[in-house]
């Protein structure tokens, strides 16, 4: 087995297979923020990515992607249910997102979660060269840092959580809270999207482990774990160059024409997930139509909702409810050839997404809770001029950075309606000022800056393995 000096460990590999038109297997980038973000920085870096290819059964041999080697981890049917759909996505995911859906505590899932985390740790230990840096990603693999440290004490281990870390009173609900906290703190550096998360972990470390905790470091019995906020970003240059392609520019014009050349196009692009606030958004839009404050002839809403975690009951239920509601709204307010909402439940390639972003007048990103939300950043990067408004939930990590968006509390449906109308009628000069400020921010804070900041801090963290807090 060839070894690497940099190993990324994430639940999912950056590629999904899909059937090509001729029935052959075709690889494409998997949807979701994590895969996109890391894929962007690893394309030209010699590294190995340890992850699952999204299928059930034997691991397949996968081709290298440029300089990136892929080391698949296989999951069988029981593991997919207990680890991925169960503990990761029915316990941790809802709990970490403010319990907007009730988390499920199923005692059978824990052992599977631990066993699969061990398999990922063993795979990482196998492909990491002596003294290598191993960067573990997200809530699926929260036990890996500690397991890996036991297997390979020579490694420099980073952990980054892409989703929010909950307030202590929510985390305390977890039956295996001590193991989960210890698992994550097996890393040399634990990174989060927001400083509040590091604060929450420090409080929990003191309460549950008796550790001395500050917002940037936690002293365990034998070592110091550094913590901090590193807001993830996007490949701004890639999105800009994509957006300048003639295909994308023409496609954006064509889309607008196909939508009936309305005065305003509202766009939302989400994984079909209950954290994304799609139902609240539909309620707000439907009430604006009902009250005659928005007219179908003038305004069109496009909702892209890519299917996600479809074997999990809450996701199936959500999809049914959304499809019923879109049908109701179109039935009630649409006209022949003029639906009120264009609902697209399908994946798009990057160029077509860029064209959609260019077509929109108002991008509506209103999650109830989101670690970051890269769609909001992609929209800003895809704009070729200073037009376009971003309506952004206060509960997305991105809100702390994109301060010039039209910020909104998505739980407040009346407030959401007013903010949509405000964004739709904003003066061009106001839009231009906001867009220029957001674009400037993203130019500096792109995905490369994120990776460099994290990995540099991680390399310094190794010196603190035996040091004390504050040194
Ligand atoms: P999450 O990580 O929760 O899915 P983000 O907004 O951070 O949310 O990231 C979503 C990523 O998935 C973005 O990079 C976006 O471009 C991509 N994406 C969303 N919808 C689609 C779609 N229909 N087709 C392809 N990619 C999509
Ligand atoms: O960013 C949150 C996240 O869970 C990522 O870890 C993941 O890549 C993405 O959402 C998509 O989810 P899934 O891998 O379950 O399809």
TrEMBL record:
<protein>
    <submittedName>
        <fullName>Trehalose 6-phosphate synthase</fullName>
    </submittedName>
</protein>
<dbReference type="InterPro" id="IPR001830">
    <property type="entry name" value="Glyco_trans_20"/>
</dbReference>
<dbReference type="Pfam" id="PF00982">
    <property type="entry name" value="Glyco_transf_20"/>
</dbReference>
<dbReference type="GO" id="GO:0003825">
    <property type="term" value="F:alpha,alpha-trehalose-phosphate synthase (UDP-forming) activity"/>
</dbReference>
<comment type="similarity">
    <text>Belongs to the glycosyltransferase 20 family.</text>
</comment>
<dbReference type="GO" id="GO:0005992">
    <property type="term" value="P:trehalose biosynthetic process"/>
</dbReference>
């Amino acid at each position: 087995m060839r070894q690497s000096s940099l190993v990324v460990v994430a639940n999912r590999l950056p590629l999904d297979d899909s059937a090509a038109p001729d029935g052959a297997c075709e690889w494409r980038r998997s949807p979701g923020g994590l895969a996109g973000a890391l894929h962007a920085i690893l394309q030209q870096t010699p590294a190995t990515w340890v992850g699952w290819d999204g299928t059930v059964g034997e691991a397949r041999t996968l081709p290298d992607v440029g300089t990136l080697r892929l080391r698949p981890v296989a999951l069988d049917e029981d593991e997919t249910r207990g680890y991925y759909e169960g503990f990761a996505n029915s316990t941790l995911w809802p709990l970490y997102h403010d319990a907007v859906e009730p988390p499920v505590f199923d005692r059978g899932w824990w052992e599977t979660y631990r066993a699969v985390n061990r398999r990922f740790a063993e795979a990482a230990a196998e492909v990491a060269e002596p003294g290598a840096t191993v960067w573990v990603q997200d809530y699926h693999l929260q036990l890996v840092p500690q397991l890996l440290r036991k297997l390979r004490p020579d490694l420099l281990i980073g952990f980054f959580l892409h989703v929010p870390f909950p307030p202590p009173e929510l985390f305390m609900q977890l039956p295996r809270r001590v193991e989960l906290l210890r698992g994550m703190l097996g890393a040399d550096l634990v990174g989060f999207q927001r400083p509040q998360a590091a604060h929450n972990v420090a409080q929990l470390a003191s309460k549950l482990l008796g550790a001395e905790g500050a917002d940037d470091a936690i002293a365990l019995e034998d070592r110091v774990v550094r913590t901090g906020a590193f807001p993830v970003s996007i490949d701004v240059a890639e999105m800009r160059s994509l957006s300048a392609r003639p295909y994308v520019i023409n496609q954006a014009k064509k889309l607008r024409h196909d939508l009936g050349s309305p005065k305003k196009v509202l766009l939302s692009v989400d994984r079909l997930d209950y954290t994304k606030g799609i139902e609240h958004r539909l309620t707000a839009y439907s009430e604006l139509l009902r009250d005659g404050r928005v007219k179908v002839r003038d305004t069109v809403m496009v909702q892209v909702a890519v299917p996600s975690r479809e074997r999990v009951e809450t996701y199936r239920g959500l999809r049914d409810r959304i499809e019923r509601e879109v049908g109701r709204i179109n039935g009630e307010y649409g006209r022949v050839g003029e639906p009120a909402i264009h609902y697209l439940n399908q994946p798009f390639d990057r160029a077509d997404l860029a064209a959609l972003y260019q077509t929109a007048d108002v991008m509506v990103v209103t999650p109830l809770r989101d670690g970051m939300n890269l769609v909001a950043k992609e929209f800003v990067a895809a704009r070729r001029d200073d037009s376009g408004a971003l309506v952004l939930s206060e509960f997305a990590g991105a809100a702390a950075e994109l301060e010039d968006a039209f910020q909104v509390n998505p739980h407040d449906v009346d407030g959401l309606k007013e903010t949509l109308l405000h964004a739709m009628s904003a003066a061009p000069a106001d839009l231009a000022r906001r867009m220029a400020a957001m674009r400037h921010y993203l130019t500096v804070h792109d995905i490369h800056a994120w990776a460099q900041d994290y990995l540099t801090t991680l390399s310094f963290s190794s010196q603190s393995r035996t040091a004390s807090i504050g040194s």
